[in-house]
């Protein structure tokens, strides 16, 4: 399905990074992976050993990363902004403005930067896909999580705007918007093992359970494949009926 595709994914050790990398390499893609931990050579080596077909990058700046891949491969077919950052809880009158700036920087500004860099090359190639793995949270809003929800909402809007801007170049831009998906970044083990807390979480989900990483990986695979070539400008919810 993804034979010879060159794919870049961010925050590869978080959110849907490992699952996405596994399903894409299994389908024949070469996956270049970014993560803050990859400044450490041992972390890069371990990731590449765990998921054959991946190339972990030491570089952190979006411009440097894109230029390195283009220099080696000549193209990037798919850019996946799998940006992860803690959903910090704070009432609006108690929120720290520095926390808000860091949230926006990690969940929206960095993705914008990556999209800016890859779009230059995709426009020349006349094809490409940019996928933001965002959140369904902005659909309804979540009290006391306004910093996180606002940043994710900005990313969803960014995907819709870029789709209209880049469509003429045969570049599809979408946002995969999960919520209530198994992930230690947002649902740590100690939370899930708390029976009362788990019941409270799942009571909000019409399907009555968390989504699995495997289910999310299948959805991601479809969105980065040629089977989704006529889908662009969409915020595609993956939340068990919550959104």
Automatic annotation (TrEMBL):
GO molecular function: oxidoreductase activity, acting on the CH-OH group of donors, NAD or NADP as acceptor; quinone binding
Keywords in alphabetical order: Oxidoreductase
Top-rank taxon: Bacteria
Gene3D superfamilies membership: NAD(P)-binding Rossmann-like Domain
Record-level GO BP terms: fatty acid biosynthetic process
InterPro entries linked to this entry: NAD(P)-bd_dom_sf, SDR_fam
Claim: Oxidoreductase is one of the keywords in the record: yes
PANTHER family membership: 3-OXOACYL-[ACYL-CARRIER-PROTEIN] REDUCTASE, SHORT-CHAIN DEHYDROGENASES/REDUCTASES FAMILY MEMBER
Similarity annotation: Belongs to the short-chain dehydrogenases/reductases (SDR) family.
Name the UniProt record assigns to this protein: SDR family oxidoreductase
Organismal lineage: Bacteria, Pseudomonadati, Pseudomonadota, Alphaproteobacteria, Sneathiellales
